Amino acid sequence: MYNSTKMTEVAGTASKLKARYDFLDLLKGGTIILVVLFHINTELTRYVVTPFFMQLFFMISGIFVSTKVDFVKYLISKINRLIVPLLFFFILNYAAIYFASDIVGLGKSGKMQRFEMLSLLELFDGTEDFTYAGALWFLIGLFNLFVFYYFISKISSPIIRLGTCFILSGLGYLLGEMHVNLPYFIDSSISMMFFFGAGHYLKNFKWFLNSTKYDLWLGIILLVPYTIIIVTNRISAEVMLNSYQGEHILLLVSALTGVFGVFFVGKVIISIPSINFLGRNSLIVLCTHQLLIIITSFVTGRVVLINGPWVDFIKLGIVLISEVPIIFFLNKYLPYFVGKRDLFHFN
């Protein structure tokens, strides 16, 4: 009887933990879909999702951070998860675009006359958008945050840690206002430090990750002011460039209400299998979708000739469906290069 009861308790705990991670996968999947749609039609989404969607990504990343290890081991772990995929996908994207634009005429002809490994130098320029794979900046920005936060996490007081993150975000925002771009996207990274730190801080509260009867109402209450703000004001956030449009207070309120509103609604929904699948593989989608957009735009614009108000959503569907075999292939045959297995080890 004791063993049976104990096993039931363990199973219940495992189920709760799975639900916690399921809804985080849902949030990551939903956010990566918005990222893809943003790159398909920036104007359609600029004033609707940019005030919160990258901030949500960084907050979720903060939930998963753990700094209770040796710094060298911690650093190698982040190199395996972020820098190895960054270099792999950078080379993959440029090689593909070289073939596409210079050989078969797909994409922006003339933009790339020849493929040079020296193009990797663009990684060190904070104003460079990589031309064809701008989303790769996120891996650099996230790596920066993991490294910076390792040292911030050594502050004993949780409130002071969060306050430090808030001050650093303010500094990052100020650099954006002054049009100061630092290498390695450091300015963009520190402007997101508060959301990253908030994720790490709040995960210690049971109500934050566990489902409660108030989640839906909290989500709705928070999304109402977010909707009012984006409908009545033209505010936007280009986090990669550390560039923001709109009143300071409106940018902050929209980011907080958007992030936490969507977060609480996600806790209620928990799982939509196809979206959760994309969330578990969001890094691959992030690093390959812009190349797929180029191919899809070529097919729909020159071959099939699809037009109309829904063309962008048709493109979105094609890109997301195309991601599925890519995800399965990379996870199975190249797991070391997509952050699923460690290429480098530290004993």
Helix/strand layout:
Blueprint: H1 2-40, H2 42-49, H3 53-64, H4 71-103, H5 137-152, H6 158-177, H7 186-191, H8 193-202, H9 206-209, H10 215-232, E1 236-238, E2 243-245, H11 248-269, H12 273-280, H13 282-303, H14 311-333
Antiparallel strand pairs: 1-2
Helix pairs in contact: 1-2, 1-3, 1-11, 1-12, 1-13, 1-14, 3-8, 3-11, 4-5, 4-13, 6-8, 10-11, 13-14
Which terms summarize this structure?
347 residues; mainly alpha; two-stranded antiparallel sheet; 2 strands
How is this structure best described in words?
With 347 residues, the protein is mostly helical. 69% of the residues lie in helices and 2% in strands. The chain is built from 14 helices and 2 strands, in the order ααααααααααββαααα. The chain has helices spanning 2-40, 42-49, 53-64, 71-103, 137-152, 158-177, 186-191, 193-202, 206-209, 215-232, 248-269, 273-280, 282-303, 311-333; strands at residues 236-238, 243-245. Strands 1-2 form a two-stranded antiparallel sheet. A hairpin with a 4-residue loop joins strand 1 (236-238) and strand 2 (243-245). The longest helix has 39 residues, at 2-40. It is globular. The N and C termini lie far apart (43 Å). The relative contact order is 0.16. Mean pLDDT is 86; it is low at 5-15 and 109-118.
